[in-house]
Give the backbone structure.
Amino acid sequence: MLAYIIRRFLLLPIIILGVTFLIFCVFSLLSPMERLATYIHDPSTLKNPQSVERLINKYHLDDPFPLGYINWLKRIVRLDLGWSQTANQSVWDAICQRFPATLELVLYSIIPVILVGIWLGVISAVHHNDMLDQTIRVTAIIGWSLPTFVFGLLVLFIFYGILDWLPPGRLSSWAQDIVYASSNFHSYTHLITIDALLNGNISIFLDALRHLIAPIITLSYISWAFLLRITRSSMLDTLRKDYVRTARSKGVDEHTVIHLHAKRNALIPVITVAGMMIIGMLGGVMITETIFTYPGLGFWAATAAQQLDSGSVISFALLFATLMIVGNLIVDISYALIDPRVRLE
Amino acid sequence: MKRNLLAMGLLLALIMLFASFSFAEVKNPDTMILATIGGPESMDPHWAYDTASGEVIYNCYDNLINYKGESTSEFVPMLATEVPTVENGLIKDDGLTYIFTIRKDVKFHNGDILTPEDVAYSIKRALIFDRAGGPVWMLFEPLLATHSIEEIAVELAGVENYSDLFENGDTRGELKSNYKDAMVKVVTDYVNKVVEVDGNNVIFHLAQAYGPLLNILAHSGSWASIIDKKWAIEQGAWDGQADIDTWWKYHDPVCENDPLYAIENGTGPFVLKKWVPEEIVMLERFDDYWQGPAKVKNVQIKGVAEWTTRKLMLQTGDADLAYVPIQYLSEVKRMEGVRVIENLPTLSNVVSMFPWTINAESPYIGSGKLDGKGIPADFFSDVHVRRGFSYLFPYDIFITKIAKGQAIRNSGPIPKGILGFSDDPSLFYDFSIIKAMEEFKLAWDGELWEKGCEFNIFYNEGNDTRKAAVDMLATYAKMINPKFKITPVGMPWSAYLKAFLTETLPIFTIGWLADYPDPHNWVPVYMGSKGDYSSYFGEVYKEFAEKNVDPLTEKALKETDHVKREEIYKELLKIAHDQAISLYIYQPIGHHVERAWVKGWYYNPIRPGVDFYSLSKSE
Amino acid sequence: MNRTVRKLFSNASSLVGIVLLFIFIIIALFAPIIAPPLSDNPYQVPRMSWDVNPQPPGFPISDDIREVYDFMGTEIKYDKAICGTAEGGYDIFYGLIWGTRTAFKIGLITVTVAGFIGVFIGSISAYFGGWIDEGLMRITDIFLSFPFLVAAMVLTTILGRGLDKVMIALIVFGWMGYARLIRGSILSAKEETYVMAAKALGVKDIKIIWKHLLPNTIFPVMVQGTMSIGSMVITAAALSFLGVGAPVGYADWGQMVSFARNWIIGAPGHAGQYWYTVLYPGIFIVLFVLAWNLIGDTLRDILDPRLRGEL
């Protein structure tokens, strides 16, 4: 067991390195002039061919691939992630600024996803193959078949356009003023809802929550369908087990059988999948954040990818890869700890 | 039990939701909010060359002079007490000397008082800073008759490239010791000579007579903003000495090393309170502003990339001003409580250009020969080809359908609103398939018509207007002769830029936005031998321009009489027409959208963005 | 096999899926008849008008465009935009019909190729074990750790717009699931007695994998593949929405929806006036994906050995 954990930890940096190497490879497909495009949005700012030379020189755009990668590695070791052209600030600052926003969104999304997904999955399994099951399954599948961006835009339309209940962005203007510029407001965690509570400011708390609802609905609605399926099949599996049959034959009431005995064991694989899903969400927020103009990592990553801002993209990929791998590891280990039947090879 | 808990949870959530609605009607009476796309790049006036940065700098910094209201040619004093003219004697020596008397008792945001030293420092630091791809070339042209400080350094030191002056060619590294004297001379003999302080006056010494100098220095030109010398040096900017602090270390830094990138200290009506890049810029009124405090206490400039979101913000009043792209203008006009001001001539145009010589290795010219499967590299050097395409484009359909009527035609490189503009009908190419056919039949001794041609036209992806223009050209070309196989292709910006720089694009469509409102910022760009765009037309064009265009543009630059200048530019327009140098697609007409409770907005075509000092809010 | 097919038809939801799929297949096959192309590239959606604004269903082709076609001698076989036009005057109906072919292309090609790659890597990895397994699985981890959408966007931006580039991006980052699946199955299957027996008889490794192991372990992969066809189409649509992907004017459902992006909220007082820009493409995407999902979901239930007795 310990050996397994140690081995996985040792492999961690190798995999991360592999990810960054791959991205670097992809970017090296671009010629220096094409890479210039991240810095120049208008050819009119290049007054003469010398400007092009100057710029290529200044940003080391013509460094050969191995040199470029090694230089980048050297900088990363010093925790210097470089400059983000798309965010107009250093990459580190860009990430620090946006990470709490995405984290807040994902954390709050987990609740409805898990509650609804698992709840409906259990119901679906218990009523296996009758109308309720079919209805739930079909609803889930339809939900899964609709592209996020259409759903998100519709949510925006209904809840903002028509009802004016849930505006886009992260905060209203008056709240932004207080959070960003007032000396009375202390940002401890940069999760605005938590900070608002810590500062004792209920109105900001509610305002932030209000801005979160629509993105949460959009972000979570695909995920709960997925979780539903896993829960359902796992629950079906468990309900057929011998010990469940035994409990039933002993006269235990159905309700207790389902919720006390079966569900606990059925949820084991579900939890691990949920763990991976949460991390996956961190990468999947791009579209949701774009639609609601929610200033998180996803929005920035989408812009950076489009404008070929290599510094930002590589750093985002690095961050995401690290989270994925670490998360994966934690999930695998906890799975092994929880379920003694699992053997780790 | 669980079910009850869940129900209670939902109920609680609903209650909280409704409770929060009571805060939905909080007004922003003290704040003016602008919802737009994108955000500023830098707060450093000598770095910024984009409109978003220009807008913030405009509101936080002042210049020596300002434009008078809506005019782009009349000036009023700002930090100088009088606008120099030939009549009042403040322009001397045939336009080589300009004298500015500096206003007293003007405060910077941090409390420092404005002195003539600050003005001199601002100019000199700009010249030292001189970032590649930045705006300071505009100061170099009049003051030192060159484009960059590196050109001066290279000449004084007698080397070929600026990087030759440094160890390992690393311009951020150590200077080779034998060049130190030459480098110091750059400052002592050149930079320090362009501007001197004389009592309360600052005197500019130009290297050549330059009509547009006042335009370059006026408010709207963020590069000529006056910064606080003491404060800048405290932040780590160049400290004004040539040899003690080596100037080349302050030259052309990368953004993260620019000490003034995120902070400001100007004399303008607003202070930068907070800047979250790409998200929001928060400005606060400067109560000690020398012209009196602004009417609005707070300003927020929000970056909202999604149009539907911006539109909803405008609708609900969460935004007071918003950027509305042309195609959605009709929807906004029907909104309640929203005011739309139209017919604002913008100082910009969109042009399709025909390089006389295309890079022979271009992959976009097919076979490279006039055999129906490609075009030769000098395809567009034949004036009949160029004229043919000029007749082929359906200008009016484009303006009505694609630009929704919010555009006008230009006959040549000078747009409406700039001296020299002409709507003389003889200078326009009308859309005529017959005339196009005639011209094409004359091209290349009739071979073009017989054999046909095949090539790609490119547009930068994400720009639907340009795509439509390019589609139209291709469609009509095929229409008159099925052997004209022109394929429109969209390219990502990176590839487009590269193709542009390597002169491989057969026809490229690009726009230009005025740096300052003078024809000298237009004609050389599109027609000169060293123009920003025309320099990519190849050797043959260069020779033509050196002979026929450059002498005229030089003459017009130095001419002080407006009428005479206009005549010279008319000659140039005629050349542009006769030679069909480019296809002038359109000049956009702008519009402004605001909530009806916003008061005080006025239009000035050269101003970058909104002048918040002039605005107020009342029901 | 027969039993499977019968079960598919007897289950209500999968029957719906099969019918839907059948309709789509018909549309794809008869596209040139339903929506005759007006230029040599049939995937180029014709413009009904140069107008930027979307036009409502029934909009007739605008005069200046009709002029062009008449001049060129092209016969216009239908001249009304049955489903309206999208931003830029592109005919929605045409885009949807030919987009069916594009959807099938994207879905089938990416899933098949990614499936092959995944199965190949996964089975080699599981069968040979040891260092090979370790190495291949680490490589799989590397690819899995990528933020998929970002990586796909970067790749398509660099390679340029085009359907083939989108498919490359989807394949490059889509094979890992299959690899893991097949690896898991083979890991357990290879300890079975029949495999041991084959090895003892000296049967070649390749043959063992191909003839014995794969046929018994391939089903989960097939189920996963069926479900993935839908999600591949959605991902391609997402890429179009984010601004990369098929070239503008290409008949692709994602394109059609992305055209609707700025028109979902109509003019004030006319909320939803551009409903057709969203509804028609939206319906097509949803039904297509739904069809595959319904079939795949039922297939999974059928092929799940633990449920075999219950259905």
User: Anything to note?
Assistant: Strands of chain A lie at 83-84, 89-90. Chain A has 14 helices and two strands. The two ends of chain A are 9 Å apart (CA to CA). The longest strand of chain A covers residues 83-84.
